[in-house]
Structure formats: structure tokens, C-alpha cells
Design a protein that fits this description.
Shape: globular
Structural class: mainly beta
Helix content: under 10%
Strand content: 25-35%
Number of strands: 59
Number of helices: 7
Radius of gyration: 33 Å
Distance between the termini: 15 Å
Number of domains: 5
Length: 733
């Protein structure tokens, strides 16, 4: 092998290339647009973004950014979200697509290890291929007939599907795609079209708190035709009109709490047993006098209500011990007073959406049937205190229950506390242990609240071990917290605030198997003495300012250090253990704070290897020297690279000695099969196509795929490439 020695001269130019061809770039806020008005770049800070209404295509721009929310301006013209547009976003992300026909999501457009929650309000939205959300993260998909999307993902074990049941347009309920049963009409509905709810298997209908309903039916059609017996609960508000023919032989009961409700002639037409629950029975009878003589077969029951002022939001009835035994509020979000020790009853069949507890809650017990048959999906956050018991049958409902149980001592009594036809999402300390409490509910999902952080200190870990990721708010790790937890790898969330690893007195990972440690790339971290002791074989310390105290690593086994400045890394350990240090190996990190360390080699075929992933032309030129008369250019085909462009596999490095000789070299970036200088989904697709003999690789592109088994590209190479994309291993150049 021979070495290249050349020196830097760079001219900075600005233009933009995207997968859609050569484009003229412009800016709209933080978005970079091409001449067609498509998004091809983004320069904003991340977080919540709003896509302009005129954008039809999103080509790129959001990869590897901390995007938390994506929404679209009203009247959006969106048609297509392209491959890799949101690949590798670094945070959990919520995407709400516009409600328009003809939107397509390309394969790998949301390739990420983060949680993606997506709302797809239009049933015509197309998912191309099986890898739109190819992910080791969770995908929560809300859409019209969302469960049909399962066919689009071969990673669906981590998918959750939720149907968007209702479509409301200008106050009118225009579509219902749910599974029937007891349904709750959204509060923004002012008018119910009669035919919308026909043939839907509905058994009960009620309305969200704060309902704006004005009209029930359309005066021409039967509202619940071909449904089973439907129980109707109207909202307690003034000015509702029940139109003619709305209730016809397929309902046996209506609750009408407001005396101002107006029933048109023939609004209720039934010879079957029919029960009216209303606040003023004498008045209720007159509502129906003009309908049919069969009204003599009806029964009437005095109900609460009357169209007066709505009761306060949280009206609890307490017994002499201060326990909750009743509730007269309107539902929605409720806050339990801190003095309440027992909840015996009060919330059954109510539209309770959120249950939280005041600080310093004294809660001890939630009794049987306390929240039975709640009519809406409900979220409960229990207080973080010891000794709470949840009684059998207390959450018996067909709605979805999301419960957070922050204290591991909480007792779920019996196996039917959550006996339900709906979903139960449980977040808790050792939540998976709760599986034994329900043999009747097949729709449980369990999420462990693994970490407790107090004032920046990691004070508790109750996870299952394996590969763990320390929350970014942790500044200090107590040594004993992670002992005996079956941990195999420890890394840190992006944006980590870590300052101290260990406490200077204890082994931080004692009793675990061999642990791989990946420190965050931030300044000022100190590894305390005795932190790493014979149960770790590798540490990556990407920041050159990291301080290793004497005896921070104390081991006589094989130990590998991956750091940016190897010669300095050796000095970190000189005073630790001379006997053990002879077993250590050192590997240079690819990059660190713009200090680029690359070693280039040239083969007999003039192939230059040793390039890093996403290494720009400027980074290459910074690391080589040349004579004053020598010029170096880089080309992809006939197009000359800019200083900020990546050097990829197949890039031509042209060296002109200024006299006679011009020599062309070919760049080789291991793992970069597509030649764009990065390793991403495109390379995975290329390798798959090669293995399937659809589009076989050749020349230097073939060599770029030999990173695992030299001389061939096999399924092993494909597996290792996937592992790299998931952040589980490196590819050496």
C-alpha cells in the first residue's frame, strides 16, 4: 500500500441537490424549498413544526433531528412524504396528517428507533411497501380502519392500532366507522344525520361532556335502523330538537335530563316497551301525546337534570370518614382531594376522561365497581405512595384504560380489576408482573417505569436489564443503583446532562454480566474511582475532555477503549493497574468535535480507503498536505463536489500535480453501497436487491458491501448492516 500526502485549497460555493434532481432553493421560514415548492431541507431548532399549506412533497430535511410534532396548515396540498424524510428522528414524534385524499407515505419515510404516533384521518392514505415505519420503536397509528394498516409492516409486533371512529364536518356527524356497542358522540357534533348510524351494531349512545348537540335526526329517516336495542342518553343542555321518525322500534329507553328538549310529532314511534327518564314526568308525557296511542304502553321515571346551571365539575359526596361514595359532577378530568383515603363508588357509567390526585395524597384503596362502565377512554395516574390497593372489578369497562402506577408496592387485588373488552395500557414499576392479575383481558400492554431521577441523581432502576438507555436528565449515577440488574450495555439519551459516573467508593455495575459502556459526547464528565471493575470489556468515551480518576477502570481482563485521541487515552489509565493495562486495546473514534482523524490508504487499483461516514470534502482536504502547485478536486460523475458535500463510494478524487500528470483515484466508504457518503436505508435496499439478484453490485460498490465477510456479500452482511442502522454496532472503514 502507498500513502497519499496532499494539502488543502477550498472555494466555498452554495447550491442544493435533492433526490428530485437539480433544484433552485428558496426559503420559507425554517424550510428550504425547491422550485416546485417542495421541502428539501430544514434549518429550524426542531420541536413542533407546521408544514405550509402549499407544500405537496416532503423530500428530506428532518433526518436525525429532535422533531416532536408535525402538523399541517389548513387547506394542505400534501401528496407525498418521501423515503427517509423523517428517518432517525431522535425523539418521540406525533404526526397529524391532513384529512385529504391521495396522500402517499413512501417506504422507510419514518425509519426510526423512536416512538411514532400518527393520525391518518383519511382512509385513502397509501402506505407503500412494508417498511414505512421500519422501526425498533413503538408505532401508535390512529386512522380510519387503522387495523388494516397491519399488512404494511413486518415490524407490527410494536404497533398499536386505534380507529378514528367519527368524522365531523361543520358540526354534522357525517361518518362513523367504529365497531358499535356503547358509543360516545364527540362534543363538537351539533347534528346527527339519521343514516350515519344505521347498521352499526350500536347498543348505547351518549354524548361527551360539553356537547353542542342541537338536532337529533333529520326528520325523514330512522336514526338507528337495523341496530339492536339502543339505549339513548341525551346531554343536559337547552335547545335540543328530536326530529320526526328518529326513534322507531329499535330503542327501549331514552334519558332526557333537560326539560327544554323538543320532540317533533312522530319523533318516537314504537309499539314496544319504551321507558322515558326525564326530570318532569308530567311534562315528558305531553312531549309524546301527538305521536301514537301506543304511548299508553310506555313507562316514565323521574330523572335528575332540568336544564338549570350545570353542576360543578368535581362534586364529590363523602361519608363520615371522608371517603368518596358519590359524584355529581359532569365528568371529564377530575382531581381527587388529597385527604381521601378510600374511593368506594361514584364514577360508574360516567364520562370520566382523566383521574389524578392532589399532591401528598393519602389514598389507600379504590373499591370494587368504583369506576365501572365509564363511558369514555380514561387515563389514571395514581399517587407515588406505598400501600395502595386496587380492588377486583373496580375498572370493569369496555373503554380503554391507561393507568400509571409509579409505586411498586401498589397491590392489584384479584384477577379482574381491569376485566375489560377495551385496551389496558399499564405504566408502572415492574408493570409486566401485573400480567398475572388479568386472565380475562387479552388487550393489555405493559410499560415499565424503569428509572427514578431525583435532583439529577439516578436513585432507582427497576427494569429488566439488557441494553439500557439512561434518561437525559440524569447528572449523577450512584454506584449501587445499577448493581445486579443483568445489564449488558449502557448508553445515554441525546442531550444527556451527565457530569459524574460513579461515586468514588463502589463498583457501579457489580453483579452484572459483561457491560458495554457508551458515554455521551459532552464535555466535563468524570469517571469516579472504582466505577468500572472487572465486569466491563469496552467503553466508548467520544469526548476528549472526559476525566478518568485513578483506578476508575480496574481490571485484568481484556478491555477496549474507544476514544478520539488514543495516545492521550493511554495516559488516562497509566496509574490504574500496570498488570491489567497490558490487556487493553485502543481504537480511535471516527470524529470528535470537528477533530477528524482518518488514515487513508491507496491500493494498486488507485482505490482510496479509510474515509469516514458522512465525511465531507472539506474534512478530507483538512487532513492531507500538498505542494503549492498541486490541486485536488472531487467529482461524482461529471459534477464537482462542494466543500460541504459528502465523499461517497465511487467518488473520483482527482489530483493534478500542476505540471503534466493528472491522476484519478476512486473513493471507498465501507457500508456506503449507494455512493452518497452515508450509511442509511438506501444501502440496505441496495444490498437486498443484490442478494435477490434484482440489481447486483459490482466494482467498488461491491467492495463497500464486504465489510463483514471479505470477498462476498452474504446474508450476514445484510444482518450486520441492519444492526448498524439500529445503532447496535459499528462498520469500520
Amino acid at each position: 500500500m502507498k500513502k497519499i500526502s496532499i494539502f488543502l485549497v477550498v472555494a466555498m460555493l452554495f447550491s442544493l441537490m435533492a433526490s428530485s434532481g437539480s433544484l433552485v432553493a428558496s426559503a420559507e421560514g425554517d424550510f428550504t424549498l425547491n422550485e416546485s415548492g417542495d421541502i428539501i431541507g430544514y434549518t429550524g431548532p426542531g420541536g413542533a413544526i407546521v408544514i405550509p399549506a402549499g407544500v405537496k412533497n416532503i423530500w428530506a430535511g428532518f433526518q436525525e433531528l429532535a422533531i416532536t410534532e408535525v402538523t399541517f396548515e389548513e387547506g394542505s396540498l400534501l401528496e407525498y412524504i418521501h423515503t427517509n424524510a423523517f428517518a432517525y428522528v431522535t425523539t418521540a414524534m406525533t404526526v397529524t396528517l391532513p384529512d385529504k385524499a391521495g396522500i402517499t407515505l413512501a417506504d422507510y419515510s419514518f425509519f426510526t428507533a423512536s416512538t411514532v404516533t400518527m393520525y391518518v384521518p383519511n382512509a385513502t392514505t397509501i402506505f407503500t411497501g412494508s417498511n414505512v415505519f421500519w422501526s425498533i420503536g413503538e408505532v401508535n397509528l390512529y386512522g380510519k380502519n387503522a387495523s388494516t394498516a397491519e399488512v404494511y409492516s413486518d415490524c407490527q409486533a410494536l404497533w398499536n392500532f386505534f380507529d378514528l371512529e367519527y368524522t365531523v364536518d361543520g358540526g354534522y356527524l357525517t361518518e362513523y366507522v367504529g365497531i358499535g356497542g356503547n358509543i360516545v358522540i364527540p362534543k363538537e357534533v351539533t347534528n346527527l344525520y339519521s343514516t350515519v348510524l344505521n347498521d352499526k351494531g350500536i347498543t348505547g349512545i351518549s354524548f361527551e361532556a360539553g356537547s353542542l348537540l342541537t338536532t337529533f335526526g333529520d326528520g325523514a329517516n330512522i336514526l338507528f335502523a337495523s341496530n339492536p336495542d339502543v339505549i339513548i342518553e341525551l346531554p343536559d343542555k337547552e335547545g335540543i330538537t328530536v326530529k320526526a321518525w328518529s326513534i322507531w322500534g329499535n330503542s327501549s329507553q331514552i334519558t332526557d335530563p333537560n326539560t327544554t328538549t323538543f320532540y317533533e310529532d312522530y319523533s318516537v314511534w314504537t309499539g314496544a316497551t319504551f321507558k322515558i327518564i326525564a326530570p318532569e314526568i308530567s311534562g315528558a308525557k305531553t312531549f309524546f301525546d301527538n305521536n301514537s296511542a301506543v304511548a299508553t304502553g310506555w313507562t316514565f321515571e323521574v330523572g335528575e337534570g332540568g336544564g338549570e346551571e350545570e353542576p360543578p365539575a368535581d362534586e364529590f359526596t363523602l361519608n363520615e370518614d371522608g371517603d368518596i361514595v358519590g359524584y355529581t359532577g359532569s365528568g371529564g378530568a377530575i382531581v381527587i382531594p388529597k385527604e381521601v383515603k378510600n374511593i368506594w363508588a361514584g364514577f360508574a357509567s360516567k364520562p370520566i376522561t382523566n383521574v389524578t390526585f392532589e399532591a401528598d395524597s393519602e389514598l389507600e384503596y379504590i373499591g370494587s365497581s368504583a369506576f365501572n362502565y365509564v363511558t369514555t377512554d380514561m387515563t389514571i395516574i395514581l399517587p407515588d405512595k406505598e400501600g395502595i390497593m386496587i380492588e377486583d372489578w373496580c375498572f370493569y369497562t369496555s373503554s380503554m384504560i391507561t393507568i400509571t402506577i409509579p409505586n411498586a408496592s401498589t397491590v392489584i387485588n384479584g384477577d379482574n380489576a381491569f376485566n375489560s373488552l377495551g385496551w389496558v395500557l399499564m405504566y408502572g414499576k415492574n408493570a409486566s408482573n401485573a400480567e398475572v392479575y388479568s386472565e380475562k383481558c387479552q388487550y393489555w400492554l405493559f410499560y415499565d417505569l424503569e428509572y427514578t431521577v431525583d435532583g439529577g441523581y439516578l436513585t432507582e432502576y427497576v427494569g429488566d436489564g439488557g441494553e439500557i438507555v439512561i434518561p437525559k436528565e440524569v447528572t449523577n449515577i450512584y454506584s449501587t443503583v445499577l448493581n445486579d440488574k443483568d445489564i449488558t450495555k449502557i448508553s445515554f439519551e441525546e442531550g444527556s446532562l451527565l457530569t459524574t459516573f460513579g461515586d468514588g467508593a463502589n463498583y457501579i455495575l457489580a453483579g452484572n454480566p459483561d457491560v458495554i459502556i457508551e458515554l455521551p459526547d459532552i464535555e466535563g464528565i468524570t469517571i469516579k474511582a472504582w466505577s468500572i471493575w472487572a465486569n466491563s470489556s469496552q467503553i466508548t468515551a467520544p469526548n476528549a475532555t472526559t476525566i478518568f480518576e485513578d483506578y476508575s477502570v480496574y481490571t485484568g481482563i481484556a478491555f477496549k477503549i474507544i476514544a478520539p485521541l488514543i495516545s492521550e487515552a493511554k495516559t488516562f489509565y497509566d496509574t490504574n493497574f500496570a498488570g491489567g493495562a497490558i490487556y487493553w486495546t485502543f481504537q480511535r473514534c471516527e470524529t470528535i468535535d470537528n477533530q477528524h482523524s482518518f488514515t487513508y490508504s491507496v491500493s494498486a487499483e488507485n482505490i482510496i480507503s479509510g474515509f469516514g461516514i458522512e465525511q465531507t470534502l472539506a474534512m478530507f482536504l483538512e487532513g492531507v498536505t500538498k505542494g503549492a502547485e498541486v490541486t485536488i478536486t472531487a467529482l461524482n460523475g461529471e459534477t464537482e463536489l462542494l466543500a460541504t458535500d459528502y465523499i461517497g463510494t465511487g467518488t473520483t478524487i482527482r489530483v493534478d500535480n500542476g505540471i503534466v500528470t493528472v491522476t484519478d483515484y476512486t473513493a471507498l466508504v465501507m457500508g456506503d453501497l449507494s455512493g452518497d457518503g452515508a450509511i442509511d436505508i438506501n444501502d440496505l435496499v441496495k444490498m437486498k436487491a443484490h442478494l435477490l439478484k434484482i440489481d447486483e453490485l459490482s466494482g467498488v460498490n461491491f467492495v463497500a458491501g464486504e465489510f463483514f465477510v471479505q470477498g462476498q456479500i452474504s446474508i450476514s452482511n445484510l444482518i450486520h448492516l441492519k444492526e448498524y442502522l439500529l445503532g447496535l454496532e459499528l462498520i469500520a472503514n
